[in-house]
Amino acid sequence: MTKVHIDLQAPASTGHAAEKGVVFFRPTRRLTIEDGKAILTPRAFCAKLADDGTVTVELMPSGDDWCWEVREELTSYTFTRRVTVPDSTDVLEYAELADAELVPASSYSTLVHSMRVIDAQLTAGATIAITDLRPSDHVGVGDTVLDSTGEVYMLTSVSGQTAIVGDTGVSLKGADGIQGKDGTGISIKGTFDSEEALKAAHPTGESGDAYLIQGHIWLWDESSWQDAGSLQGPKGDKGDPGPQGEPGADGKDGTNGTNGKDGEKGEKGDPGEKGDPGKDGADGEKGEKGDPGEKGDPGTPGEKGADGKDGEQGPAGKDGKDGIQAIQASDEADATTKSAADSANLYWWTT
To answer: The pTM is what?
Structure first.
């Protein structure tokens, strides 16, 4: 195996700065050994750059018909080249390795999208949807995927709209930082109306000293007073309704309000049920005499009264005139004729 030292730097205003990222290595073909009876498969792998942008790897020396494809997946770009690796006991510099002449140089000088990210935590052997990758175009075997935890995986199989990832053993997540020292507590010593009033009263302070000014907390930072922001936090979520309280005491009667305006006349209501007859009222005062009424119908004749007593005999009457002589006629026609001719006599007849 040949050791190869890789050193990748980026341009900077000070000259250069260490690149960050990973480097992937993949053989361009499998090898046959023992007179073609066995196949040797150099394993593809990746290596993470150290903080200074360097890493040293061990590569199998390449042959006349194959080489190593090296893909630099950096934070600023992606670059792929194919190199030949001689058999050497010395540590070789990656920058000094010869480019392989198996393919045109243009095939590895073009930037490609081969480092992809996914908003999910992956495990080796997991199947993922290609549409979940960013970017998701021109996806191929050998592309790398950075998951949400900073772990780097490689696509080992692509079929239709899904792909299978394999573990690379590389993580872009840095090591945990050193535990920080416990901070000093603060002591709110009072309040002031303004920064000027605070500085006039306390030109200097001690670590942990704090004062309130208009709802903001001001701290002494070993050299000056600094506004550490509002002491009041953001408005919290609405709480759950509390339990029902006890009924309160009756309040005092309020003062009478002014009479309201008359309302509009309502619609006529339905007739009510007939009420019970009322008690007889007291006799009213005698009214004035009314006008005479119309003559009434004759009444039913009363019973015959008892015979009255004989009255006293009256005086003798005067002699009367001679009366009319009644003469019997023979029939109605005769009586009519004779009565018309003789008015002094009365003619009558009977049937």
So the answer is: 0.36
